[in-house]
Amino acid sequence: MEPDKDSVKPQEDRNVGITENKAKRSDSPMDVDASQSEKCERTENGKPLVQDLSSGDGAVRPKEDCTSTEQSEEKKQKLDNSETSPELKTEAAEDAATKEMVTFKVMFNKQKYDVTFDLDGTVSALKSHIQTITGVPSAMQKLMYKGLVKDDKTLRELKVTKGAKFMLVGSKLDDVLEVNKPVDKKALEEEDKKASATKEPFCKMKQHKKVLDKGIPDDVQPGIKGVEERLPTVPISGMVNKANSKVRLTFKLELDQVWIGTKERTEKLPMSSIKAVVSEPIEGHEEYHIMAIQLGPTEASRYWIYWVPAQYVNAIKDTILGKWQYF
Predict the structure, then answer these.
(1) Where does the Ubiquitin-like domain start and stop, copy by copy (predicted)?
(2) Using H for helix, E for strand and C for coil, what is the string for the chain?
(3) Residues 249-263: pLDDT tens digits?
(4) Across residues 234-244, what is the average pLDDT?
(5) Residues 266-315: tens digit of each pLDDT
(6) Cβ pair 105, 113 in contact under 8 A
(7) Which of 5, 130, 244, 300 is deepest in the core (most CB within 10 A)?
């Protein structure tokens, strides 16, 4: 007996319905792996459209667009990683290693600073580096190495070698501001009057007067009143000491020494060992000074030099004491 066709048909319809439901469930977003950043929705002109979840706006784009977005993210990640990559750091280290460096000393305020700098670097760049070490503004620095050096010269051109010594003359900004503070002029005048009344000028003291009375030495260098000049490149000669013996001063900046030479001997004094330098113009011959270099803690250790040309007095003080002098 054949089954009724009408009775079979609903069964087939039910089977078809089950198949369609399965197909719909397979397309459900719940079946898509949550780690994926895109979900296929439909196609247009043969290209699948996907929802780009990585962009944050959930927009539906062609799959190619989503792929380009992913590629851009990958490129960005590579660039970020390259900034701190060991290879780049190695390359930077190799560049630094190609520079020829030289180590030397900078003398300032009786202190020594070890400095390592590019041999092909300029003096101007060196001053900026020294500012970070000493606190002396580069614009207020004077660097001396076998004489005053120019900003546009390189260390190689100056023939700087390992262990060389530079002399720095300058003042920290705080010191300059302290000096420029307003002062009570009346109080200063009163102090000067008191000091003048109690202090006898050097040239009037008996111990100095007997040297000065012998007159200006024939071979002394010409003195210039009211002018300041740099130290000459040759020794300052023609002066005399307390025993009226000829004296010459030689400044060895690379050794941080001042040499006091006489006919009998030459004293090589480290500048850092000198405690003070004082001077006064000679009355009636103001183009020359009496100068005392104090070698110990008391005035009894002063080494007296007579007929020092006035134009070099400040330069001598600056070089020996390693700081600016305000006059």
Answers:
(1) 100-175
(2) CCCCHHHHHHHHHHHHHHHHHHHHHHCCHHHCCCCCCEEEEEEECCEEEEEECCCCCCCEEEHHHHHHHHHHHHHHHHHHHHHCCHHHHHHHHHHHHHCCEEEEEEEECCEEEEEEEECCCEHHHHHHHHHHHHCCCHHHCEEECCCECCCCCECCCCCCCCCCEEEEECCCHHHHHHHCCCCCHHHHHHHHHHHHHHCCCHHHCHHHHHHHCCCCCCCCCCCCCCCCCCCCCCCEEEEEECCCCEEEEEEEHHHCEEEEECCCCEEEEEHHHCCEEEEEEECCEEEEEEEEEECCCCHHHEEEEEEEEHHHHHHHHHHHHCCCCCC
(3) 999 988 889 999 999
(4) 93
(5) 999 988 889 899 999 999 999 999 999 998 888 889 999 999 999 999 99
(6) yes
(7) 130
On average, the pLDDT of the chain sits at 75
In this prediction the pTM is 0.43
